[in-house]
Amino acid sequence: MGESTAIPLAEAKPGQFFRIHRLSLDGTMRRRLLDLGFIPGAEVKVLQKSPLGDPMAFLVANTTIALRKEESAQIYGEIIGERGDHHG
Amino acid sequence: MADYRIALAGNPNTGKSTLFNALTGLRQHTGNWPGKTVIHAEGEYDFDGDTYTVIDLPGTYSLYSNSADEEVARDYIIFEKPDVTVVVLDATALERNMNLALQVLEMTGKVILCLNLMDEAERKGIRVDVDALAAKLGVPVVPTTARDGVGLKDLQKTIQRMVRGEIITRPLQVRYNEEIEKNVAAMEPSIRSIYGEKLPARWVALRLLDGDDSLLKALKERWLERKEVPVHGRGA
Q1: How far apart, in whole angstroms, are the C-alpha atoms of residue A76 and residue A80?
Q2: Is Protein biosynthesis tagged as a keyword (chain A) (predicted)?
């Protein structure tokens, strides 16, 4: 799954599509993210960054969810496309 | 004439409260769940001479992240054992809603899935194969548009058939990897010897393997308390 090229979701830019590989968190926060749809294999669209870059808004399983950098920096995966060149 | 208890579970924004209002009208009371700052809403309706008490559980994406809302919903389903748990699903976002539905199916077989917001799904060009969904999940699926009252009679009829024992369900049980299944199998007998049929042994085993401290705490509170109470004819 190209683990060496995995980057944190926090580094993706607005308009980019991102596929999740793994979550490097444990316990309740991991559970919470899984419940919200941040599941390995899932596709996330980066919607926008707040002026200071934190939090960021994501579209996941048809719902907009905002995450703090604290969490989005621990979700790893790859960028799979930009706005426009994606057909989902 | 009998009195049945129906719990409504579902994600936020699925129209669960709209359904609750449509079913119970003005016959409602609200308050707080004991010891929690979580709203408790309860109402009633009559159908074919029986009274149904409807409990509107807090809207949650899950029952396992251990917020106060989720603990209330989990504890009601697992300890209070409603006659039917209706899981309200957003027909436009089934993928997201299936998480909670599958969790409830692991807890009890007395489940009806209410596929709500069917009008919005139609508008978005989403078509749901209701029969295939019911066959796959092993429980009845009733499509509704609660805000227009569409499908409510079907839902009430299905609830009636379930409380009368006329519906046999085979709730889909998620199979986990070999290691988890091995551990579940090893734990189930001792869980059964403690709780008998009062709690679903497979579900308790899975929660314990997940390290669910909140459930352990709830089990301790409820079972230790009850064991100290002298028996007055009612079993613990």
Answers
A1: 13
A2: no
